[in-house]
């Protein structure tokens, strides 16, 4: 029995075990398998592990998308998360090429995936409060939002959650150093039903001018010497 003799439901089940590249390659073999690849039901879950994956033509975005995860853990991602004033020319050039990659992708998700239920972002150092605000407005069914080490996120995102996160049940803001304790407390007061986790976020040193950072480093060295 040839694979193309299987019905659509069986083919969708088989495709679900393949990664995005394998699905795309198999879809190139015949029209029937291409139809399976283009079936929205196949794309309810998407996971990405590098910025380049977001630019590939091996997946579909649409109303069927329910769960999205974008997690970067490479050394290059750590390099992009380093403050601009500490970067060398190579680092700045690399980071500038990917600065809007995730933001542009999430804008596309906001416009095309209104039924999104969960979003996990980790190490996406270039996304901003406005990006999360637009997503909360366009994806009213969002129940879980997990942000880890998203260094540009501030209390404005917390305020956006209180205004537009009516369906939100879980909010993780771990290692988002530009959040404040006051902002987290306001969110807890306004949204007591939301399970909030913000490990170390309000206790980390926020972004500041290079002069202030150098001063803090010098003071730390003095304390160590004492």
Tell me what the structure shows.
This protein has helices spanning 8-15, 20-27, 31-37, 75-81, 89-98, 101-112, 129-138, 155-164, 181-190, 210-225, and strands spanning 45-48, 67-71, 118-122, 144-148, 170-174, 195-197. By secondary structure, the chain is an alpha/beta fold. The protein has two domains: 1-42, Up-down Bundle (Monooxygenase), CATH 1.20.1280; 44-224, Leucine-rich repeat, LRR (right-handed beta-alpha superhelix). Strands 1-2-3-4-5-6 form a six-stranded parallel β-sheet, with no helix packed on it. Helix 2 packs antiparallel against helix 3 (31-37), helix 7 runs parallel beside helix 8 (155-164) and helix 8 packs parallel to helix 9 (181-190). The relative contact order is 0.08.
Output the keywords:
Leucine-rich repeat, LRR (right-handed beta-alpha superhelix), F-box_dom, 226 residues, FXL22 protein, ubl conjugation pathway, Monooxygenase, six-stranded parallel sheet, 12% strand, Leu-rich_rpt_Cys-con_subtyp
The rounded distance between the terminal residues' Cα atoms is: 78 Å
For the secondary structure, the number of strands is 6
N-to-C order of helices and strands: HHHEEHHHEHEHEHEH
The parts where pLDDT drops under 50 for at least 5 residues are 209-217
Number of domains: 2
What fraction, in percent, of the residue positions are helical?
40-55%
The CATH architecture of the largest domain? Alpha-Beta Horseshoe
Radius of gyration: 21 Å
Number of helices: 10
* Major sheet strand order: 1-2-3-4-5-6
User: Main beta sheet: strand number and arrangement?
Assistant: 6 strands, parallel
Tertiary shape = elongated
* Structure classification: alpha/beta
User: What name does CATH use for the topology of the largest domain?
Assistant: Leucine-rich repeat, LRR (right-handed beta-alpha superhelix)
